[in-house]
Amino acid sequence: MSTREPLVGVYPGTFDPITKGHQDIIQRATRVVDRLIIAVAANAGKEPLFSPEERVEMVRAEAVALKAAHAEIEVCAFDNLLMHLAQDVGARVIIRGLRAVSDFEYEFQMASMNARLNPEVETVFLTASERQQFIASRFVKEIGRLGGDITSFVSPRVAVRLAERFAQERAAAEAAKKKVRKIRGV
Q1: What is the C-alpha to C-alpha distance for residues 9 and 170, in angstroms, rounded to an integer?
Q2: Rounded to whole angstroms, how far apart are CA atoms 179 and 173?
Q3: Is 84 labeled as catalytic in the residue annotation?
Q4: Under 8 Å CB-to-CB from 27, ≥6 apart: which residues?
Q5: Domains along the chain?
Q6: Is the pLDDT confidence value at 184 over 90?
Q7: pTM reported for the whole predicted model
Q8: What was the pLDDT predicted at 44?
Q9: Counting CB atoms within 10 angstroms of each CB, which of 18, 22, 70, 171 has the fewest?
Q10: Residue 137 annotated in active site
């Protein structure tokens, strides 16, 4: 009787912030792999609202709340090639979520490049559930920044973190305006 090695998967993303759509993919990915590494990309090119450390903290809190019964979940930050991370953690699967057909072309290209870099690692696409397909972090941030209700898109914990960050942004913008007025003598 042989015992197989646990199947390790990596679910990479910016998670700025983690949404209910991400949580849906995480929950479903735990049914596919034995150990899921949620890899939070530094991705400074996207100008994230939260630091990598803050995003890791939020993702960890959400992962704990999921109480996945099917797989062990870990969360880490990374700032190198995804295939290097996969190799470092012994992953044989990359999990990618698809919201819409428009996501597929980009994700297909990434999967093809990753396969060239390491043909031992497979990419598995999970389509978002119907209720979560339209949720994107950038839309959640835009809605929240403009005072809209984001509670159906993120957990209460994440909604509080977003509200606090937007309040900090507004306070900083107001302080900058006051400084400019003072310099102008208005």
Answers
A1: 39
A2: 10
A3: no
A4: 66, 68
A5: 8-132 (3.40.50.620)
A6: no
A7: 0.89
A8: 66
A9: 171
A10: yes
